[in-house]
Amino acid sequence: MTFTKEALKKMFPELAKELDRDDNNVPISSIRTNARTGENVSSKSYVHYVPDVIDFIRRCDTSKQAEEIIDYMEKRGEIETQYAAKLRKQLKETGLRSFGSKKERDYYLRHGEL
Asked: Where are the alpha helices (DSSP H) in 1-114?
């Protein structure tokens, strides 16, 4: 269903006002193409947590390092070739930080509930 802006304002005036406000922006700091991986990472407790390829990429300082991580994990069979291709595409098109902010040393100790 398609609405013009004027039709939206007539049908849903409050919603239209909210959509026009600048304070409704929510920054997206990362992109995950695998929903299961995203759900696993959302846990607040890192007890028995096994880092995935995204976690390792988030520790990288350069795109070249991230590419090496992807290559290594693909070669070892830890990620599938199709997933590796998606990661490379994301890295090339949206950059290293599209996977999330940089994870510094002792990240899990500082952010986990131990």
From this structure: 5-11, 13-20, 35-41, 53-57, 63-75, 81-94, 107-111
User: What domain range includes position 65?
Assistant: 5-111
CA–CA separation, 12 and 55 (whole Å): 42
pLDDT tens digits, residue range 8-54?
888 888 888 887 877 666 666 666 766 666 656 555 556 667 788 99
Look up the pTM and report it: 0.57
> Residue 56 corresponds to which amino acid?
F
Report how many domains make up the chain.
1
For the chain, the residue count is: 114
Residues 71-86 pLDDT 10s: 999 999 999 999 999 9
